[in-house]
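Section 4.2 – Deliverable D4.2 (structural model, holo form)

The reporting period included a commitment to supply a predicted holo structure for the target in complex with nicotinamide-adenine-dinucleotide. Inputs used:
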Amino acid sequence: MKEIAVVTGAGGGIGKAVSLMIHEKSGGELKLALCDVNEAAVSELAEGIPGSFAVAADLASQAGRDALLEAVLLQGTPSVLVNNAGIDKPHEPLLSIQESSFEALMGLNLKAPAFLMRHFAKEMMASGGGVIVNISSVLARHALTGSAFYRVSKAGIEALTRQFAMELGPRGVRVNAVAPGFIMTPMTASIPAEVKEKIRSMIALGEFGAPEAVAEAVWHLVENQYINGAVLPVDGGMLL
Ligand code: NAD
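Output (structure tokens):
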């Protein structure tokens, strides 16, 4: 059976670019498992990528994560996992933060990749190895008003990246992360123009990033056999 590359949040801006990049760079050798809670988005993407398949699942729930693992194992052996699904809302002033926001942001951005890594890494080790790439954020290292739990979830995924890299490296599984800056996707589309301009002024290259820039970095981390435990910024030199 074919080796499988699993991309979560594949229906969104970065996830779609990552999926297309993996398909192109692997020359179709890696079969793509395209997972998203948005069934229509991944079904449409799967139609455009030969040999790929869509998995509609809410990865914030254990049932959703189990469904993804089961669907992938039916199709082949996972050798790549890109933990990309994420949310950045609600934005809340620090003194109004809600427990429900903590649970939502941590549930999808930190708990889901943690347990997906655990389950998929076991399968990778059993079949001779693999590689995991987590999508962090520039905000793991920088404060932004209203984003307390988002940044904690991303700082957490960077810590877990290093932890899994250290423990799984000797067992043939590399684990790295990409930390995007401001990327033009549905996630950032609704940010008001004046806020966008303020953010742009913080970027040394003076430009927002395209999802393909993140996708290229993900592919680099998949390919390079001697990078393990790294967090690669893709932010045009933001908040230097
Ligand atoms: P996006 O909103 O375009 O895509 C996110 C995708 O995740 C969507 O397709 C959505 O349906 C899916 N998703 C949401 N909840 C889900 C769930 N419970 N289960 C499964 N899938 C779910 O956002 P994006 O900009 O492509 O972001 C992708 C990743 O990049 C996220 O982890 C985000 O935090 C990170 N990131 C984005 C930026 C940016 O500027 N866009 C910057 C830094 C980090």
